[in-house]
Design brief:
Largest sheet: 11 strands, mixed
Number of strands: 31
Mean pLDDT: 78
Number of domains: 3
Helix content: under 10%
Low-confidence stretches: 1-17, 172-183, 337-342, 423-436
Radius of gyration: 30 Å
Length: about 425
C-alpha cells in the first residue's frame, strides 16, 4: 500500500460541525509492481477531506515518502490534522512529484491517472477524538509498455485496517559509526507550552508517565523512558519557559518522532471552574528530526499547546512542531505543580559527636517540630524516626565519615559528618564516671 491515512476515534455518526477531531495521515503501499523498484518517492503536497454534505477541507502535507518501505501494513505518518467532526466520504491526495528508480538502476516513468488521487471511502471523525484511516495506493505496470501508474486501492483503505507505523521519509536513514557500532549520547528532554488558549487557565496540570523516541530508519525500534508520573503546570511554561523532565541515555543516531504518554489532564479556568480538556489519544506524537551524537548532550524541547474546540468551552492539548526541537530558546523554570509547595521542608543533623565503633543519633525536624516516620538510610539500611524525630544506629569501627539520606513524603535531604576514632582501651572517661 502506497498511501495511508490514519484517523483514530469514534465510529458513530455525528451532526456536522458539532466539534473537531484529529486526523493522523499516513502513507502505505500494497505490493502490485512495487518489487520492480529500488526507490519510488512520492511527494504529497495537500490532503483534501470531503464531508458527506459536500464541504471540503484542504490541509498542507509537504511530505516525500519512499513507497518501497511501505510493504503490507507498513505505513508512514504524513501529518496530523484537526477536522470538524462528522461524516466524510472522500479523500484526495495532491501529488507534487514522483521519482522512481528500478532495481536495475534505470529511471522509471510513473504517472498519475490525473493531477491527484481520489478515494471514495466513508468514515467518521468523532468530536474530540482521533480516527485511524488507511489511504492505500498501488503501483501497477501499464501493460508491456514499461510505464507505471499509481492509484488508490479502496479495498485496502479505511478505518479498520492494520497499521504498522514506520518512517518512510525519502531521507530517513539510520545513523551508525564507521564500524557499525552503536554508541550513546544524552538527550535532555524539556517541556514547554505555546500560548494559544493557555491564558484561559489558572492551572493546567498534565501528568506524564513516559517519553518515547523513534529513530529515522525503517524499523519501529522505539525506545521509551519512564519519567515517574511527573506533573507539570503548563501555565508556568509560556513562551520560552521550559522545565527539564529528565536526561536520558540515547543511542547515537538520527531520530524523527517523539512521543509523550499522558495519564491525566486537570485544568482550572481563570474563573475557578473546571475545564474539559482532552487528549487526541493516550499519547502525544511529534514528528521532529534531530540527531544525538556520541558523548554529547542534546537539549530537546517538546512544546504543547491547548486550543479551544470552536466556541464549545472544551479544549484539546496537542504538540506544536514549529516550537519544538533542538534549536529553540530555553528559559529554564521548575514548572512543577503547586502540590510540591505543600511538601514540608525537612532538616536533619547528627546529635553530638559521631565516633567510629559507637552509636550515632540523627534528629529530623520540620521547622521547630520533630518529624516522626521519616526514613533515615545509612549504609544500605533503613531506619524510621520515633516520636522525637530521632533514630540511632551503630557506626562501623573503621568509619572515617558517616553519611545518611533522609526521606519524608516528597522531600529528601542528605547529611554527612566526620567520625572520630574510638579509644583504643575501649573506655571513655567523663569526670568520675567510666563508661565501658
Amino acid at each position: 500500500m502506497a498511501g495511508m491515512l490514519a484517523l483514530a476515534g469514534c465510529s458513530t455518526a455525528l451532526d456536522p460541525g458539532s466539534g473537531t477531531g484529529t486526523v493522523n495521515f499516513y502513507v502505505s503501499d500494497q505490493p502490485g509492481a512495487l518489487e520492480d523498484f529500488d526507490h519510488l518517492n512520492v511527494t504529497i503536497t495537500e490532503v483534501t477531506f470531503v464531508r458527506a454534505d459536500g464541504n471540503r477541507t484542504t490541509k498542507e502535507a509537504d511530505a516525500t515518502v519512499d513507497l518501497t518501505r511501505l510493504d503490507g501494513a507498513n505505513s508512514s505518518l504524513v501529518g496530523q490534522y484537526e477536522l470538524e467532526s462528522g461524516d466524510y466520504e472522500k479523500v484526495f491526495l495532491s501529488v507534487g512529484g514522483i521519482d522512481g528508480t528500478l532495481t536495475n538502476g534505470d529511471s522509471a516513468e510513473v504517472k498519475l491517472p490525473s493531477d491527484r488521487l481520489q478515494l471514495t471511502q466513508n468514515f467518521t471523525v468523532g468530536d474530540g477524538e482521533d480516527v485511524d484511516f488507511v489511504y492505500d495506493i498501488m503501483v501497477t505496470k501499464a501493460g508491456g509498455s514499461g510505464k507505471y501508474v499509481i492509484r488508490p486501492v479502496a479495498s485496502e483503505s479505511g478505518t479498520d485496517v492494520e497499521i504498522n507505523e514506520v518512517d518512510a521519509s525519502a531521507d530517513g536513514e539510520a545513523a551508525m559509526d564507521e564500524n557499525g557500532t552503536e554508541t550513546q549520547g544524552s538527550l535532555a528532554f524539556y517541556l514547554s507550552d505555546e500560548r494559544n488558549a493557555i491564558d484561559d487557565f489558572e492551572h493546567l496540570n498534565v501528568t506524564i508517565t513516559k517519553v518515547g523516541v523513534q529513530p529515522s530508519d525503517e524499523s519501529d525500534n522505539r525506545t521509551e523512558y519512564e519519567v515517574d508520573n511527573r506533573t507539570v503546570d503548563l501555565t508556568e511554561l509560556k513562551g520560552a519557559n521550559a522545565t527539564l523532565m529528565e536526561t536520558f541515555d540515547a543511542e547515537e543516531g538520527n531520530y524523527s518522532k517523539v512521543f509523550v504518554h499522558v495519564s491525566e489532564v486537570d485544568g482550572t479556568l481563570a474563573g475557578g471552574s473546571s475545564a474539559d480538556v482532552k487528549l487526541p489519544s493516550e499519547k502525544l506524537q511529534l514528528n521532529e528530526e534531530f540527531t544525538v551524537e556520541a558523548n554529547s548532550t542534546v537539549d530537546f524541547v517538546y512544546d504543547i499547546t491547548v486550543v479551544e474546540r470552536g466556541n464549545t468551552g472544551k479544549y484539546n492539548i496537542k504538540p506544536v512542531a514549529s516550537e519544538s526541537g533542538i534549536d529553540v530558546p530555553i528559559e529554564r523554570v521548575d514548572g512543577e505543580t503547586n502540590d510540591s509547595d505543600d511538601a514540608p521542608e525537612v532538616a536533619a543533623e547528627f546529635v553530638g559527636d559521631v565516633t567510629a565503633g559507637e552509636n550515632a543519633t540523627v534528629s529530623v525536624t520540620s521547622g521547630d517540630e520533630p518529624v516522626e516516620g521519616a526514613t533515615v538510610t545509612h549504609d544500605g539500611t533503613d531506619y524510621t524516626t520515633n516520636a522525637d524525630g530521632e533514630v540511632t544506629f551503630a557506626v562501623p569501627e573503621d568509619a572515617e565519615t558517616v553519611e545518611v539520606t533522609v526521606e519524608y513524603e516528597d522531600t529528601e535531604t542528605e547529611v554527612e559528618t566526620d567520625a572520630s576514632a574510638a579509644s583504643t582501651s575501649g573506655n571513655a572517661s567523663y569526670g568520675s564516671d567510666v563508661l565501658v
